[in-house]
Structure formats: C-alpha cells, structure tokens
Design a protein that fits this description.
Layout: E1 3-10, H1 12-16, H2 20-30, E2 33-41, H3 44-50, H4 60-67, E3 71-80, H5 82-90, H6 103-107, E4 116-118, H7 122-133
Antiparallel strand pairs: 1-3, 1-4, 2-3
Length: 136
Amino acid sequence: MQVEQTFIIIKPEAVARGLVGEILSRFERKGLTIRRLAVRQIEPELAKVHYGHHADKPFFGELIEAITAGPVVMGVLEGPGAIAHVRNLIGATDPLKAAPGTIRGDFALQNPYNMVHASDSPETARAEIARFFGDE
C-alpha cells in the first residue's frame, strides 16, 4: 500500500468539547504519523473556497457558519493508505449513519457538527494541504 498524506480539520465543536487529544490519538493508534499540526480560526472567505463544491446546496450557509464558529485544529497525517484509513476512522458524514466506534459515531449528534473534515482523494488532499499550509 502506498504511503500518502491526507488533510484533516478537527472542527470547532470538537475543539470546544475538549476532544482534540482523543481524536488525534485515534489516528496515532491506527499507525498514522502526524506530519503537521496547527490551530487557527478559519475566516468565512476561506471556508467558502474550501466548501465551494457545496455552494449550491441548501446547507452551505450552515456549513460555513459551523466551520468558522471557533478555532480548529488542522493537520497533515501520513501513512500507507492514509486517506482511506482516516475516512474509515471518522465514519459516515451523517452522524446518525456513522458506526459506533468511529469518531462521528461516538461523538457527533447532527450535521454539520460532525467533528472532523477529512480529504476524500489524493487530489483533494494535495489541494487542501496547499490551501491551509501553503507550499512549504
């Protein structure tokens, strides 16, 4: 399996509830390496670019409001099959459909407050890493 990098955002509701350590430890226990980590507030303009693929959906405004509601922890994780492993660990987007044992299944109650964003493909991961961390 190819070693790859993926991008995550631990969303404001998870930060506010003190779940950052628990969430990061799940990734580490899986065997993924944290390559970069930052705490910041996402500005609405950047959030609109990040979630631009949802701009025509009725929940877009609420999504932007949720991701900009407070500080987030964003990171780059690395390991064999990192993208698929992270997506499996976080669970289904809808917390009601997320399996127990996943981050969303264990901690989230409703969308868009589903605790974590994660890249869904190598192309998306590269774009999101560049968007939030630059080309360093």
